Amino acid sequence: MLGDLVRLRAMEPSDAEALWRWNHDPQVMRWMQDNHPQSLAQVTRWLGEERTRNEYGDVLLGVEVQADDKLIGLVRLHGAEPELGIAELDIYLGEKNYWGKGYATDAVRTVCRYGFDKMRLHKITLTVVPENEAAWRAYRKVGFVQEGRLREVFRRDGRWYDQYTMGLLAGELIDA
Ligand SMILES: CC(C)(COP(=O)(O)OP(=O)(O)OC[C@H]1O[C@@H](n2cnc3c(N)ncnc32)[C@H](O)[C@@H]1OP(=O)(O)O)[C@@H](O)C(=O)NCCC(=O)NCCS
Questions:
Q1: Residues 123 and 88 sit within 8 Å (Cβ to Cβ)
Q2: Is the pLDDT of residue 34 over 90?
Q3: Extents of the domains making up the chain
Q4: Are 112 and 125 spatial neighbours (Cβ–Cβ below 8 Å)?
Q5: Which of 30, 70, 99 to mutate to test the pocket of ligand 1 (most atoms within 8 A of CB)?
Q6: Phi, psi of 68 (to 5 degrees)
Q7: 17: closest CA among 89, 95, 122?
Q8: Above 90 in pLDDT, residue 44?
């Protein structure tokens, strides 16, 4: 699906090297809940064979820049149940030289539009560490509002951080 700047598309097994590299970059993972390290072979297997196809409860999409077709990150809507119509959003852009150019804002807006229009979600939620200013600014810009504050739930470099919970209702999405 197309935004103004990015294209969102299904992930391919050949994306494994990029995903593996981003997951091992401390700057990219600074505010992300990271898993234990995985080998390139494990990430390749996960993308190619183990992961089930995109479905209502878990939609994982690569973020490509329209101008040069470069894969720069991914977005995910997960945890949705038809009875509730609420999904959680994650985004990370692993190619750091593409930061600060509006790609995250456009990718978040585009996947939210997909969630509301195609999946008929009622609400999209997320959590973010407030120190991650670029992320919460992008979320605010497309209409997410802060709904709560979880005290000391994220640990990094020997310190605990709070997280904001944010939410966006169908009809609240702000267009570019
Ligand atoms: C956070 C992240 C998604 C932002 O992506 P991005 O493409 O650089 O964001 P955008 O260019 O759309 O910018 C969003 C807003 O943040 C601002 N911003 C960008 N970089 C910033 C920085 N380093 N510090 C403060 N604000 C910054 C932009 O100016 C913009 O705000 P504005 O429109 O009000 O001026 C990206 O840096 C990333 O993936 N980081 C690693 C993973 C991560 O932290 N994911 C989010 C977890 S909740």
A1: no
A2: no
A3: 6-169
A4: no
A5: 99
A6: -135, 10
A7: 95
A8: yes
6-169: CATH architecture: 3-Layer(aba) Sandwich (3.40)
Given the structure tokens 């101008």, which residue do they identify? 67
- Ligand 1: residue whose CA is nearest its atom 16: 134
Closest protein CA for atom 17 of ligand 1: 134
Q: What is the pLDDT of residues 140-155, one digit of tens each?
A: 999 999 999 999 999 9
How many residues comprise the chain?
176
Q: How far is the CA of 136 from the centre of ligand 1 (A)?
A: 8
- For ligand 1, the distance from its centroid to the CA atom of residue 99, given in whole angstroms, is 7
Pocket test for ligand 1, best of 74, 93, 125 (most atoms within 8 A of CB): 93
- Quote the pTM value: 0.97
